[in-house]
Amino acid sequence: MPKVRRSAAYRLAFGYTALCALAVLVTGLGVYYAASALLRQDFDRAIVQEMASLEREYGEGGRPDLIDALTRHTGRTGNGFRYALFDPAGQSVLRQATLLRASPGWGETQREGSDRPWHARFLAVRLRGGETLIVAADTRDLDRLRDRLFGLLAAGFVLILGLGAAGTLLFGRHLRRRLEAISSTAEVIMAGDLTHRISVGPSGDEFDRAGESLNLMLDRIAQLVENLRQVSSDVAHDLRTPLQRLRGAVELGLNGPQQITALRSALEKAQVQSEAALALFEAVLRICEVEAGGARQRFEPIELGQLAASMCEMYGPALEDGGRTVLCVNGDPVMVRGDRELLVQLVTNLLDNAALHTPPGTTVTVSTRAGAAGAELVVADTGPGVPEADRDRIVRRFVRLNHGRTTKGHGLGLNLVAAIAAAHGGRIAVEDNKPGLRVTLSLPLAQAGGPGRDAPANK
């Protein structure tokens, strides 16, 4: 019982059952009193009709006809009325069931001289000649009917209360079991098992939908935790080399020849390694800043083809110096809303990635178009490409397909590209270019008639 009292599920179920029981009780009592009133009205109406019939007899033939009518009515089979007639002096002319003289109007009496007295309701009327006529009817049948009605209502209320209590226990048990499944899952996860998930049934009810949403949230949390672990490990791994080199350069400057040339060389090596470590932290902070969503405050209308053309013009010579060919293919103007600096960073990273991972003789193509899903910017190359199993991985932080981690960079370029795309409400897709690699950036088009049509903003 203490556990039941502490359970919100049981309290809710019992509260709802108590409310329903109260509603049934009020309704039942209302029905009982309304039915009793109707039965009493019918009962009184029958007495009034019987009195009216006898008054007509008296009006037509006086006391003799009234006595004759009373005699006939008394001997009638199944007649439930009792009668009494008193003369103006109060003497009994005709009397049944020891009815006593009463003042005109309604009243109640009981049978005298009986072990089980019965109650009767009567109507007394003063006739034109001064006589008093009383018509009474036994109320025992009416009382039994009302008692039976009350008993049925009471039995129905007890039955409903019992069924409600049983339903409450079942409902509370079901609700508590479903909630405990969520609580137990949370406890297992807090204990360290991030793979545990809430069981979801086939019914698709509110609990199942809540469980699915919570499982998706747990999947996202597990992914973030795994990313954090990966970032921690990769940051430590990537920092170890420049820091070791930095330490070696410092030790060389301290322990080597104390000459200006040697010291300057050691300081220059230390500066290079410290800049590498700072570049790593700067890249991580840049990604965090983009993922925080603050860039939306700087969104402006941008013509994507114009931006791509300017980037090809800016970085084309450097790629061509490395023996690569750069092509820029733009269709109709494509308007988007975004942060120009971030989009420039995105294209720069994709071109740097193509220059770093493709051999001389590779053709790099930058194109823009408006598709059914929105604006698209594609950077494709004819290099060696990326294995299909690794295409989803290369957009994660610190992922480098060179497992020896000897290639220049920290594996953050494409992750920053994915973060910038997400900040603009878009996404990137890494696909096979047959041969080579194709990276497609999809962005929503600027709303027609809105700020996105303001072409001069691109200047």
Comma- or semicolon-separated keywords:
459 residues, alpha+beta, Helix Hairpins, Heat Shock Protein 90, five-stranded antiparallel beta sheet, 8 helices
From the alpha-carbon coordinates, what is the Rg to the nearest angstrom? 49 Å
Question: What integer is the average pLDDT?
Answer: 78
Helix content: 40-55%
* Known CATH architecture of the largest domain: 2-Layer Sandwich
Q: Element order, helices and strands?
A: HHEEEEEHHHEHEEHEEHEE
CATH hierarchy class name of the largest domain: Alpha Beta
Note the overall shape.
rod-shaped
Question: How many angstroms does the end-to-end distance come to?
Answer: 75 Å
Integer tally of domains: 3
Low-confidence stretches: 449-459
- Structural class assignment: alpha+beta
Oligomeric state, counting identical vs distinct chains? single chain
CATH topology of the largest domain: Heat Shock Protein 90
Largest sheet report: 5 strands, antiparallel
Strands, count: 12
CATH superfamily of the largest domain: Histidine kinase-like ATPase, C-terminal domain
Strand order of the largest sheet: 2-1-5-4-3
Overview of this protein structure:
The protein is an alpha+beta fold and 459 residues long. It has 3 domains: 2-84 and 137-145; 206-291, Orthogonal Bundle (Helix Hairpins); 298-458, 2-Layer Sandwich (Heat Shock Protein 90). The protein is built from 8 helices and 12 strands. It has helices at residues 2-6, 8-74, 140-190, 206-255, 260-291, 304-321, 340-357, 413-423; strands at residues 81-86, 92-95, 105-110, 119-126, 132-138, 300-303, 325-330, 335-338, 363-371, 374-381, 427-432, 437-443. The strands form 3 sheets. A 5-stranded antiparallel sheet has the order 2-1-5-4-3. A 5-stranded mixed sheet has the order 7-9-10-12-11, covered by helices on one side. A hairpin with a 4-residue loop joins strand 11 (427-432) and strand 12 (437-443). It is rod-shaped. The two termini are 75 Å apart. 21% of the residues are buried. The model is unreliable at 449-459 (pLDDT under 50).
